[in-house]
Amino acid sequence: MKVIRLFMVMALATALFTQCNKDNLMDTLPGEDPSLKKGEKPDAPPKGSFTVTIENVSEHYSFFESGMINTPVGESSPGPAFPGQSFTFSFHGGKGHQLSFATMYGISNDLFYGPSGEGLALFDGDTPLTGDITSMIMLWDAGTEVNEEPGVGPNTGPNQSGPNTGPDENGTVRNIDDVNDGYAYPPVADNIKVMLDYNGTDTFTLTIENLPGSSTPLSPLVWVVHSMPHALFEEGMPDYGMGLEHLAEDGATGMLAEYLSMNSGYVSPIAPGVWVVHKKNNKPIFTDGMPDYGDGLEPLAEMGDPSTLAAALMAKGYESGVFNTPDGAGSPGPLFPGDSYTFTVDGKAGEYLSFASMLGKSNDLFFGPDDMGIRLFKGIDAVDGDITAHVELWDAGTEVNEYPGAGIHQGPGGVDEMENVMMVNDGFMYPAVDQMIRVTIMRN
C-alpha cells in the first residue's frame, strides 16, 4: 500500500511539474534558438522594452492641385480665346485654400489677367466663394519686357516676330494701375467676366469669358490651388523665373504648368494616436468588417483625438497610452512631413502591439496594423526594424468620405456613415501607405 501511495505521489508530482513547464512554454519553433536542442524550451517567456517610432515621410508639396487649360469652350484644338469665347475648368478646393491663375492679355508685351498674388480665398468660414468674381481680377504687368502701345508696338503679342523678342525690363510684378507707362488699358470688366461655381462638397468650376466687345484675345491659362500666398508671384517683387514670363510675354503655358505640376500633390499631417499591448486573438481597437466599438475610435479617426479611446482601453485593463508630442517639440501636435513620434512599450512573448493614428486630411481614416496587431516576439526573437509593411490605411466607417484634402467636413461636422471598419476603398486616390508613414520598432 505504501508503495502504491508513493507511486501515486510521484506520478502527481510529475504531472504538476509537466503542467508547470507547459504553462511557461513560449510560442516557438524548434531550432529558433541555436542554444536549445530540438524539443527543448526556455524556462520563461522572453520579455523586453521596445521603442516605437512613427514618422511622417510624405513628400512636401508646395501646392495642392494645379493644371492648365488651352482649348476654348466649343473648340476642338488648343488656341487663344477670342472675343465671344471662354475658358472653363474645374478643380478641387477646401477651407484654407486659395486659387491663383494667369492668362495673357494678348495684345501686350507682358501683361496678364489674374487675382492678387495672395490668390482668391475659396472659403470665408463655411461659405464658399461663388458667383461673379470679376471685381477680384486685375491686369498685371510681369515686369519682364518693356511695354509698348497695346496691339501696335512691334513686339506686342500680335506683332512680335518670335517668342521673347522685346527688350528685357528687369522690373517687378505690378498692378497695371501702378505702372504709368503712358498707355491706356480698358477696365477689366470691359474685356472679361469671371464666374465661380461650387458643387457643394469639394469641386469648383471657374469660367473666364472673353466678352464680345473685348479688345484682346486671352491666351491659354495656368491655375493652381494653394494654401500659402504668392504661388505665382508677389506684387512688387521680380518674376520667380518659373515660367510666368513665358506666359505673360508669349501665352506659353508649358514651363509654368510643368513647375506647378511637379510641386502639387496631396500631403497630410498625421494626428496624435493611441497604442495598446494585448494578447493574441484580442482585438482591442477594432474588428475588420465590423462596426466601430464605440470606445473612442470615432473621435480619433475623425478629429485626431485619442484620449477617449486610450481611457477606454486602460479601463478594460490593457497597457495603453497616447503618443501626441512630435520629437523635439515642446507641446502636443500633429506630425508634418519630416516629423516623428516616439514612444516605449513593454511586452513579452505572446503579446501584440496595436496602434491607431488619424490621417489628418481625411474624414475618418486612420493608420494602424490589422485588428490582431503586430506580434512582439517570434519564438525568442523580438520584432525589430521597419514594420511599415504591416501598417494599413483604415476607414472607421463613421463619416462619409470626401475628396482627400478638399472635403468641407474633414474635421468636426461630417455626415454620419454607420458602416464597418475596413481598409479604405472609397474610390479616391491616396498615396501608398509607405509614402506617407514609416513605423519602426527597436528592442531596448
Note poorly predicted spans: 1-37
Instruction: Tell me the overall shape.
Output: elongated
Approximate strand percentage: 25-35%
The end-to-end distance, rounded to whole angstroms, is 57 Å
**Biggest sheet: strands, sense, closure?**
7 strands, antiparallel
What is the count of distinct domains? 2
Q: Number of helix segments?
A: 6
Task: Give the helix proportion (percent range).
Answer: 10-25%
What's the rounded overall pLDDT mean?
89
Oligomeric state of the chains? Answer: single chain
Number of strands: 26
Structural class: alpha+beta
Radius of gyration: 32 Å
Description:
With 444 residues, this protein is an alpha+beta fold. It has 2 domains: 41-59 and 268-443, F-spondin domain (Immunoglobulin-like); 65-262, no CATH class. Helices cover 13% and strands 29% of the residues. Strands 2, 4, 5, 6, 10, 11 and 14 form a 7-stranded antiparallel sheet that branches. The longest helix has 22 residues, at 2-23. The radius of gyration is 32 Å and the shape is elongated. Residues 1-18 form the signal peptide.
